[in-house]
Amino acid sequence: LCMTELRAPLQAQVVVWLVQPGAEVAAGEVLVILEAMKMEHEVRAPGAGHLQSHFFAAGEMVQEGDLLSKVELLRQEIPGPQPDLA
Fold first, then answer.
1. Is the Cβ–Cβ distance between 1 and 70 less than 8 Å?
2. What pLDDT was estimated at residue 75?
3. Which of 24, 25, 54, 57 has the fewest Cβ atoms within 10 Å of its own Cβ atom?
Protein backbone atom coordinates (compact mmCIF):
# COMPACT_ATOMS: atom_id res chain seq x y z
CA LEU A 1 0.00 0.00 0.00
CA CYS A 2 1.10 3.51 -0.78
CA MET A 3 -0.11 6.88 0.50
CA THR A 4 -0.55 9.83 -1.85
CA GLU A 5 -1.45 13.42 -1.00
CA LEU A 6 -4.38 15.38 -2.39
CA ARG A 7 -3.46 19.05 -2.62
CA ALA A 8 -5.52 22.07 -3.58
CA PRO A 9 -4.79 23.00 -7.21
CA LEU A 10 -5.62 26.66 -6.53
CA GLN A 11 -6.83 29.11 -3.87
CA ALA A 12 -10.50 28.28 -3.38
CA GLN A 13 -13.33 27.54 -0.97
CA VAL A 14 -14.26 23.94 -0.13
CA VAL A 15 -17.85 23.48 -1.35
CA VAL A 16 -18.53 19.85 -0.49
CA TRP A 17 -16.78 16.56 0.19
CA LEU A 18 -18.44 13.81 -1.85
CA VAL A 19 -16.58 11.00 -0.08
CA GLN A 20 -16.30 10.46 3.68
CA PRO A 21 -13.02 9.51 5.41
CA GLY A 22 -12.38 5.78 5.34
CA ALA A 23 -14.50 5.25 2.23
CA GLU A 24 -13.20 3.28 -0.72
CA VAL A 25 -12.66 5.37 -3.85
CA ALA A 26 -12.18 4.52 -7.51
CA ALA A 27 -9.47 5.99 -9.71
CA GLY A 28 -10.71 9.30 -11.12
CA GLU A 29 -13.66 9.55 -8.70
CA VAL A 30 -14.54 13.13 -7.66
CA LEU A 31 -13.66 13.49 -3.97
CA VAL A 32 -14.18 17.18 -3.23
CA ILE A 33 -15.49 20.23 -5.07
CA LEU A 34 -13.73 23.56 -4.68
CA GLU A 35 -15.02 26.94 -5.84
CA ALA A 36 -12.90 29.86 -7.04
CA MET A 37 -14.23 32.96 -8.77
CA LYS A 38 -17.71 31.40 -9.22
CA MET A 39 -16.25 28.33 -10.96
CA GLU A 40 -16.27 24.83 -9.49
CA HIS A 41 -13.17 22.66 -9.61
CA GLU A 42 -13.27 18.90 -9.01
CA VAL A 43 -10.45 17.17 -7.15
CA ARG A 44 -10.31 13.52 -8.20
CA ALA A 45 -8.76 10.39 -6.74
CA PRO A 46 -5.36 9.65 -8.31
CA GLY A 47 -6.04 5.93 -8.04
CA ALA A 48 -8.19 3.32 -6.32
CA GLY A 49 -7.87 3.23 -2.56
CA HIS A 50 -9.26 4.59 0.70
CA LEU A 51 -9.72 8.28 1.54
CA GLN A 52 -8.14 9.38 4.80
CA SER A 53 -9.09 12.42 6.95
CA HIS A 54 -10.50 15.68 5.60
CA PHE A 55 -8.10 18.47 6.59
CA PHE A 56 -10.57 21.22 5.62
CA ALA A 57 -14.35 21.39 6.08
CA ALA A 58 -17.00 22.70 3.68
CA GLY A 59 -16.94 26.49 3.73
CA GLU A 60 -13.25 26.80 4.59
CA MET A 61 -10.76 28.56 2.33
CA VAL A 62 -7.69 26.71 1.06
CA GLN A 63 -4.55 28.05 -0.54
CA GLU A 64 -2.89 26.55 -3.60
CA GLY A 65 -0.87 23.53 -2.47
CA ASP A 66 -2.73 23.03 0.85
CA LEU A 67 -3.09 19.39 1.87
CA LEU A 68 -6.78 18.43 1.52
CA SER A 69 -6.51 14.73 2.34
CA LYS A 70 -4.49 11.61 1.64
CA VAL A 71 -5.49 8.52 -0.30
CA GLU A 72 -4.13 5.12 0.68
CA LEU A 73 -3.73 3.55 -2.76
CA LEU A 74 -4.42 -0.12 -3.26
CA ARG A 75 -1.54 -2.16 -4.66
CA GLN A 76 -2.04 -2.55 -8.38
CA GLU A 77 -1.89 -6.12 -9.63
CA ILE A 78 0.49 -6.55 -12.55
CA PRO A 79 -1.21 -8.49 -15.34
CA GLY A 80 0.61 -11.32 -17.03
CA PRO A 81 2.08 -14.65 -16.07
CA GLN A 82 2.64 -15.23 -12.37
CA PRO A 83 6.00 -16.60 -11.21
CA ASP A 84 6.05 -20.24 -10.22
CA LEU A 85 6.85 -20.19 -6.51
CA ALA A 86 6.59 -23.96 -6.01
1. no
2. 72
3. 57
